[in-house]
Specification:
Blueprint lengths: L8 H29 L28 H27 L1 H14 L15 H50 L5 H30 L5 E4 H11 L1 H6 L2 E7 L3 E4 L1 H17 L6 E10 L2 E8 L6 H4 L23 H11 L3 E6 L5 E8 L4
Length: 364
Amino acid sequence: MDRTPGLSVRLKLALSYAAFLMVGGTLLLTVVWVFLLRGASISIFVPVPSNLLRAFDPTNFGPIIFGPAAVAVMAFLLMFGLLGGWLLAGRMIAPLTRITNATRMVAEGSLSHRIGLQGRQDEFRELADAFDAMLARIEAHVVEQQRFAANASHELRTPLAITQTLLDVARNDPNRDTDELVKRLRDVNARAIDLTEALLILSRADQRAFAKAQVDLSLVAEEATETLLLLAEKRGVTLETHCDTARVFGSNTLLLQLVTNLLHNAIVHNLPEHGAVWVTTSVHLGYVMLVVENTGEDLPPNSVSALVEPFQRGTGRIHTGHAGVGLGLTIVKSIAQAHDGTLILAPRPSGGLRVMVQLPVPAA
């Protein structure tokens, strides 16, 4: 933004200090005149060296020429105020200069720079610390987005490359079974559609581009359970729900996607047989809790946090019949954050995973 040039903050502070000293000096001289010198005879008096101390005695102000002395005092205060104010202002706004330089570096694209202002806590250091924290969050977000874009490009390229290969084979082999080709193309296309829809959902959640209303999370959990009941029966997994009424404020569609993703992961990543999934909703002081637990293999605690990374699966980048597109928990985390909630993952002692989603209770 183009602005009209003006006085610097340092000069304004210096002028303010000088003006304050001038006002203070004027008030002091006025008090001296009103209470000590009014009515006293004014005459010229130059003290000898032995009597210099008497010049600072308030009872002896009468013999001094008040008018010229007052002018001299005010001139001295003006010069002292300008010089002292200029030096003090420069010292005070030095941190602001560092913050400004850091801001310019960020504007030029350098997100790794930090102010790192030392010293005791004050307003400038609070501003510098807040600026550094903001830069750290922005840098982490940019790195995450770059990594996500690279992974998304790779995942989207895979079905396209497979489709191209199948079409080339079909063109070079006219006698190839077209039914098999159509089936494989349909499966690859379905995966590409699922991945695209997942990316769109993730984008909506990250941008918070959705309408909000009061939602009963227990009803959402029951709806997701009914939707995935056939998949659970096919894989020999028992679904158990214990849902108390739990109202939150948000998007019914996105919250349904959140619960569906959690249930789908819990069913797919389970024991080969006789697996179980437990879903509960409960209300606590100030927040609502959704918990999805499942049986399964033992998970190292240090590997659980990586499950929310994009395109990460419990057994690596392995595609199975119901492995999904690797964005299930990433979408869950984004939806929870878009509703001012938190996602907590923890391995169960007996195997499997415990996922907790904490959402705030809507204001009355």
